[in-house]
Design goal:
The chain contains 15 helices and 22 strands. The strands form five sheets. Strands 1, 2, 3, 10, 11, 12, 13, 14, 17, 18, 19 and 20 form a twelve-stranded mixed beta sheet that branches. Strand 17, helix 11 and strand 18 form a beta-alpha-beta unit.
Length: 579
């Protein structure tokens, strides 16, 4: 899952570089070998006119609409990198670069009370069909993300951290002004996502989204189910199949300044990291930036023929185990605490990631990396993640849990505790995590059923809370203010385990009450402390990821700070000019 969400950016970048490792079969002329020291310029080169590129994505998706809880998926975010109207991107140095196809300048703060932000649209910014982007498109996105049934009745937004805080949106030609409610004081106002789907396309379907909240929800459903033919990016969709592939061709209405050179760009789903590596070595694809890395894949790439290059580094996604508080057993905070105390994270990390990165560390903060200036460790003192079965047993004994003659854990009412553990079937690390978790919980007297999830069903399983325990990952950029609200707020569509804690809700709301980044980080850590007390989410690790490319490509490199990973600069991709 992805998070549209400033931890200490410099520290974050340094951590990524410290973890990085590069290699290639025989050091091709265009390669990722310099990515450790030149993360934002490695693999640069002159592009030839024309050419076709095929890029592998390591899992599918079940919705085209990133506004929704089930469409809030890192894989569709990558698949739609060529056309989606993102406000901007962070580069590898943590610098924010506004979308050149949409805006002529950075968003401008024109008032602090109420917070009012002005957006200047670039001349020619349009939806790829000759229709200019207007204030209505900003309003449409507000309604879709509002969480307000009076604006969108039946919508299931991935988060409401932006939409619920908007008071009004007005437009005057190429200038659009967003005014927030008096209580909004987000330190990350500049980075809010303000566009998503085109209002005029909804109207073409006969949907009066602006005046009818039911029609607004129907519009969101339409965009979830319908292959996008519109675009604001350097490419337009020529053909697509949900969860399988997207074929792009250049967008002749692209308003950006970067010239597109490729004739065709295909994003294709290939499940399994080994299969992706094999496809690259066989020349079936030109590269991939999967959300995982394994020692087996690295070995295959090390022995590949000349012409293949790869890089491994700390990535944007963090792995975690979540609990469903609506489960009859896990509704008890005491049991949740004991479960987390029994899970041995160091063993999980050793079995799943140490073969890839020998110095990888357990993650001890939900929002800030271990190297961030804002990092605070509240986890260690609780024993959560330590694998301390004795501590877990004492926690349960104090709450009058017991064990039967066969060692099965019983609730104070005498019911045997049984749980399931869900994981994405294409991710070997998550399968191993489930197996190790089941083994340690068996020592606590809890029987755990392992249940895999099909690659295109993760969003559905999460949205329906069809799990007791689940291991998945959030893919994030360098921001944090909206994170706590999206992850844990009682009313958030991304609060998949349905934690309802009024004290936590108040702390989360407080994070959004300051324009000062340092103050916001301190407030975020208070919310993290409460989440730990609730024993709701157990962070595992900032997972290492890899990028691999053919040496025929130039200007293709990984980006830890972007939702789109290597596709963050997709307009600059090209085939190497060999003349």
């Amino acid at each position: 899952m992805k998070r549209h969400h400033m931890a200490a950016v410099a520290a974050f970048a340094c951590t990524t570089l410290a973890l990085a490792g590069c290699g290639g079969g025989n050091a091709p002329s265009s390669s990722l070998d310099d990515c450790v020291t030149e993360a934002d310029t490695c693999n640069s080169g002159e592009r030839a006119e024309g050419g076709e590129v095929t890029w592998a994505i390591d899992a599918g998706w079940g919705s085209w609409n990133q506004n929704t809880a089930d469409g809030n998926n890192a894989y569709v975010s990558l698949a739609l990198a060529g056309m989606w109207p993102y406000t901007g991107q962070f580069d590898q140095n943590g610098d924010f670069i506004v979308n050149e196809g949409l805006f002529s300048s950075d968003p401008e703060l024109v008032s602090e009370s109420p917070v009012t932000v002005e957006y200047s649209l670039k001349e020619g910014a349009n939806w790829g069909d000759g229709t200019d982007i207007t204030v209505d498109d900003f309003i449409y996105h507000w309604y879709a993300r509002s969480g307000n049934a009076e604006l969108c009745e039946g919508c299931t937004p991935a988060n409401t951290t932006y939409g619920s805080q908007v008071a009004s949106i007005e437009g005057d030609g190429s200038t659009v002004t967003v005014t927030y409610v008096e209580s909004y004081h987000s330190a990350e106002w500049k980075f809010e996502e303000v566009l998503s789907n085109p209002a005029h396309v909804a109207e073409e379907q006969g949907l009066d989204w602006k005046n009818d909240p039911v029609a607004m929800a129907a519009a969101e459903q339409y965009f979830s189910e319908t292959n996008p033919t519109w675009t604001t990016g350097p490419y337009q969709v020529a053909d697509a199949a949900m969860g399988e592939y997207v074929i792009y061709e250049p967008n002749p209405d692209w308003a950006g300044d970067t010239e597109v050179t490729l004739d065709k760009l295909t994003f294709r789903v290939i499940e399994g990291l080994d299969n992706i590596v094999t496809a690259l070595r066989n020349g079936e694809i030109d590269g991939s930036s999967p959300f995982s890395a394994t020692s087996e894949a690295i070995t295959q790439l090390e022995t590949a023929d000349e012409g293949v290059s790869y890089s491994v580094a700390g990535g944007p996604n963090w792995e975690h185990i979540d609990l469903n508080t609506r489960n009859e057993f896990l509704s008890d905070q005491t049991l949740r605490t004991a479960v987390f105390q029994a899970i041995d994270l160091e063993n999980i990390i050793e079995r799943t990631y140490a073969f890839v990165q020998s110095d990888i560390e357990r993650k001890n903060n939900h929002l800030f990396r271990n190297g961030s200036e804002y990092f605070v460790d509240y986890l260690t003192a609780t024993g959560q993640g330590t694998g301390d079965i004795e501590m877990a047993r004492n926690t349960l004994l104090d709450a009058e849990y017991s064990w039967d003659a066969d060692g099965n854990l019983l609730t104070p009412d005498g019911e045997q505790v049984e749980l399931n553990f869900r994981y994405l079937e294409t991710r070997e690390s998550r399968k191993i995590t489930g197996e190790l978790t089941a083994a340690t919980l068996a020592d606590l007297g809890i029987q755990v059923e392992l249940k895999s999830i099909a690659p295109d069903k993760l969003g559905e399983v999460l949205a329906e809370a069809d799990f007791d325990m689940i291991n998945f990952g959030w893919s994030s950029d360098p921001l944090f203010v909206g994170s706590a609200s999206q992850y844990w707020s009682s009313g958030s569509g991304s609060n998949f385990g349905h934690l309802e804690d009024p004290e936590l809700d108040a702390l989360i709301e407080n994070v959004n009450g300051t324009l000062d980044m340092d103050d916001a980080a301190a407030r975020a850590n208070e919310a993290i402390k409460r989440v730990i007390e609730d024993a709701y989410v157990l962070p595992i690790v900032d997972a290492p990821v890899m990028v691999m490319v053919s040496d025929r490509l130039v200007n293709v490199r990984d980006n830890w700070a972007s939702q789109q990973r290597a596709a963050y600069n997709i307009a600059e991709w090209g085939v190497a000019d060999t003349e």
